[in-house]
Amino acid sequence: MSQTKTNRIRAALLCGAALLLAPIPAGANAQNAADTVKETKAADITNAAPTSYVTDKKNTASVEDATGSRDKIDAKESGTKTKSQGKAWELEAEYLHGSSFEKRHVNVYNLHYFQKGKDIGKRLSLSYGGTLQRATGDNATEDHSDIYGSSSAVGLGPAVLLRYEYPISGRLTGAIDATGSLLFYNRAHPYDGRAYGFLWRIGPRFSYHYTKNDAITIGWSFHHSSNGMGSHNPGYNGNGIMLAYTHGF
What are the φ/ψ torsions at residue 11 (nearest 5 degrees)? Predict the structure, then answer.
């Protein structure tokens, strides 16, 4: 090979090396930087989407858990409140006129106190309390219908109330009451009887609940009084009206 060709080859190799080692133009660097930024943003968006979804899912779950917990608390408080309101005390004032038997002229004035004990089913309830009675009038003996004596007496004793209550309209409710009282008197009652006796009552009543915890009631009762023995038991019947005030707690 001639010296001229050798020099040309060397010059070509040097030019190629110079091109390879030459710095990248500023425009190219800017373009590459922009491409890099775009790729980075795309990667960030791609990576952020699942994270955002997971965060939203966690937030939703937290809200649902909080709502569920709040509902449970409300339900518990509501149940407690209902249960608490299910307790109540009641005060009844009553007048019963003894008009069923011809020779039993006995009238009674009763004051009953009851406190709700428990519910038996949806509308039936059982209450416990006591009765204070003031009896007046007179009656004939069982053996001698022409002999009369005073039946005036004061009695006191425990009582039980069985009630079936049902809604009527709005704040008005109705009920059927059946009560029994065991009374101990300060003297034999009625005349020629014994110093104790039973008072049985049954009748309808209507209550107006003017607040959430308070109600006033009017009712009518049929009653029977006797001592349950085979002798010295001049029992009597009667009927009358009753007014009551009820307070729940």
Answer: -65, -40
The top-level CATH class assigned to 87-248 is mainly beta
Angle at the Cα of 180 (from 174 to 186), degrees rounded to 5? 130
Distance of CA 129 to the CA centre of its chain: 23
Cα separation, 141 vs 149, in Å, equals 8
What are the beta bridge partners of residue 128?
115, 160
Q: Is the pLDDT of residue 155 over 90?
A: yes
Q: What is the tens place of the pLDDT at every residue in 100-127?
A: 777 888 999 999 999 999 999 889 999 9
When pLDDT is cut at 50, 70 and 90, the band that residue 142 belongs to is: confident
DSSP designation for 12: H
Report how far residue 86's alpha carbon sits from residue 80's, in angstroms, rounded to the nearest whole number: 10
Helix (H) or strand (E) holding 220: strand 214-226
- How far the first Cα of the chain sits from its last, in Å, is 122
* Beta bridge mates, 179: 161, 201
State the amino acid at position 127 in one-letter form.
S
d(CA 119, CA 197): 28
Q: pLDDT-based confidence at 137, cuts 50/70/90?
A: very high
